[in-house]
Structure formats: structure tokens, C-alpha cells
Amino acid sequence: MQLMENPEVKGVEYQQGTLQGYEVREYVLEKWNRQCAYCGAKDIPLQIEHIHPRANGGTNRISNLTLACDKCNKAKGIKDIKDFLKKNPEVLKRIQAQAKAPLKDAAAVNASRWALFERLKATGLPVEVGSGGLTKFNRTSRELPKTHWLDAANVGTSTPDTLLIKDVRPLVIKATGHGNRQMCLPDRYGFPRTSAKGAKKVKGFQTGDMVKALVTKGKKGGTYVGRVAVRARGSFNITTIQGTIQGIGYHYCHMIHHCDGYSYTKGDAAFPPVA
User: Is residue 200 a contact partner of residue 206, using CB atoms and an 8 Å limit?
Assistant: First the structure.
């Protein structure tokens, strides 16, 4: 936090490296909500802007850095921010207030993460820490696309120089929950009008289970893999990638995975094979 607040501090090797630039950029992006401080433009390339220009004695302190689009950055140039925004006093007031925002929240998170790190180390397990800036540095230097799973593969200093990811398709796990937690339905006055419901199983199957149905006869003959919705009469619905197949008898179904509140799918490869 001290380095971010005062980059002119000397004698620290980390502060002089390439990574320090990544850390500062990531922090500034979050602090200024990833939009131009002057015009509010989003989802466009943004540049680090010195509120008080370097040409006029401005520093690289976090409190002097903001984000600007190319148009606003060029328009401001080396002008004093008060002159640049003299026709927009509200914007000037907002930028000045946001620039002076203290780092106490970031400092609190920083202290908490190191306390957690020490607790984890005490378990005797191998533990490594990283940062968003380090992750981005690792991913960018290896010329990898931005995805959640590649970010996970690039966390920390132990990331290998070369990641073999060709044709790799990640397993995407999504929390879906166990359905509605409401125990019963109320009337308009708030009193229960239905009995409490519990986890209902029919012939060993529960709604949400992953099943494979091998239908050997009839109009619905075929193989279906998906989530099952059970019915007391034993005629189930199976939701597959292609759609929902209704009226599949329980005796055709084979359990693949019990419902655990998550869905599992195959993600896209970072570099798919060339056809």
C-alpha cells in the first residue's frame, strides 16, 4: 500500500519491476470503475492519465492517477484540471473527491489476506500467493487469451514458462443450488396453504440427478443424457442439451451423478484445432 501511495519510495526491487506497472494499472482500473473519468465512456481502450500533468510537476502517486479515453486525454494534454473542466464543475468536484479517496479499504483487505496466508501456512500444506497484476502479467507475457480458467492457470510465481493448453477443454462447474428453499406456499395473508415439502425421491431418483436413459422401444426410442425431473407415477422428464424429453419411464434411466447443487459442462478450448 505504501508503494502504491508513494511510488517514489526507493530501495525496493519489486517497485522497480515490470510487474509494479501491472499492479498499479489494475488498481486504477478498479478505483475508477473502468471508465473515462472525464466523459464516462466504457468498454473502450483507456489510458492512465495524470490529473496534475507530469510536465507541470505531477507525480505517479495513486492519488494523481485516473483513467481517460484517447479523446479526453489528448484534449486535456498538459492543462490544469481546473482549466480543463471549468465548464463542468460537477465532474471536477467528483474527480477531486475520488482521487483523494484513502487506501484504507485496500489496506484492510491486504492485511486480511496475509493473516489468511499465515493460517494456511500453519497447516503445513504448500501455499502460494499472487495478485491480479501478477496473473495478468503471466497471461499476457505468454500471449494467452483472457478466460477464467486460463487466469486460474496463471496465478502465482510458480506458473511455468510454457503452458500446454492446445485442445484443452475445461470442465465448467456452475452452482445451481438445490431449488427453492421455500418450505411451503403461503396464502395472501402469509399463512401456509400447503404442507412442508422435502427432498422427494421416486424409484431412487431425485429431481436434478444426472441420468442416462436408454429407451429401447416406442416413439421415444433413443439415448438421452441430462437432468431428470421425477414424477410420482414413475414417468420422468429429462432435460438434455437438445431440449426436454417428457414421459421417460424410470426403468430406462441409469444414474450418472446425484444432484449436488452444481452443473457440469465442457467449456471451449482456448486454441481450438484448425479444421
Answer: yes
- Give the count of domains, the chain: 2
**Sequential DSSP letters for 24-43:** HHHHHHHHTTTB-TTT--BS
| C-alpha–C-alpha distance, residues 107 and 102, integer Å | 9
DSSP 143: T
Out of 77, 104, 131, a domain closes at 104
Domain that holds residue 67: 2-104
Residue 152 counted as domain residue: no
Each residue's pLDDT, cut to its tens digit, for the chain (275 residues) gives: 555 555 555 544 444 455 666 778 888 888 899 999 999 999 999 999 999 998 888 888 888 999 999 999 999 999 999 999 999 999 999 999 988 877 777 778 778 888 999 999 999 998 888 888 888 889 988 999 888 899 989 988 889 998 888 888 898 888 877 766 666 778 888 888 876 665 578 999 998 899 999 999 888 899 999 999 998 899 999 999 889 999 999 999 999 999 888 888 888 887 766 55
Picking from 239, 256, 237, the residue whose alpha carbon sits closest to that of residue 248 is 237
Q: Exposed e or buried b for every residue in 81-95, given b needs 16+ CB within 10 A? A: beebbeeeeebbeeb
Q: Name residues whose C-beta falls within 8 Å of residue 140's C-beta, 6 or more positions apart in sequence.
A: none
The H-or-E segment that residue 249 falls in is strand 244-249
11 and 92 both lie in a single domain: yes
Whole-structure pTM over 0.85, yes or no?
no
